[in-house]
Amino acid sequence: SPQARAGIISTVEVLKVMEAFVNEPNYTVWSDLSCNLGILSTLLSHTDFHPDIEAFVRDVFSPIGERLGWDPKPGEGHLDALLRGLVLGKLGKAGHKGTLEEARRRFRDHVEGKHILSADLRSPVYVTVLKHGDSSTLDTMLKV
């Protein structure tokens, strides 16, 4: 948050406030949380605290990720699709085990032509498998 970056309030206080939004359904709120946690994760990326912030991201984003799931539900709007992509991407980058496994499965099915990835899932799936993949994953991605 701007207040934390300015030193007005502590990062710990900001994280406590973020936890309060765990049941929030609004895309804009989650987008802001994602952005601020992304900044914090980048700042801590080469410190001993990075695994802790990644665990925090998994804890905060898991409930909404489970609620949204991977596939659209009848009656969902455009913002739900955006939120799903945002949340699954955040969980995947943070190393959430279930998200990583499903992203790998969907990527493999997409590459093999069994099931084409929907447009709203391409980014979270690609980012997840690339971040947690190896050189063969990159080679496969370049051929897609």
From TrEMBL:
Transmembrane segments: none annotated. PANTHER family: PROTEASE M1 ZINC METALLOPROTEASE, PUROMYCIN-SENSITIVE AMINOPEPTIDASE-RELATED. One of its GO terms (biological process) is proteolysis. Pfam families: ERAP1_C (PF11838). GO terms for molecular function: metalloaminopeptidase activity; peptide binding; zinc ion binding. Residues 4-143 form the ERAP1-like C-terminal domain. This is PSA aminopeptidase. One of its GO terms (cellular component) is cytoplasm. It comes from Origma solitaria. Belongs to the peptidase M1 family. Keywords: Aminopeptidase, Hydrolase, Protease.
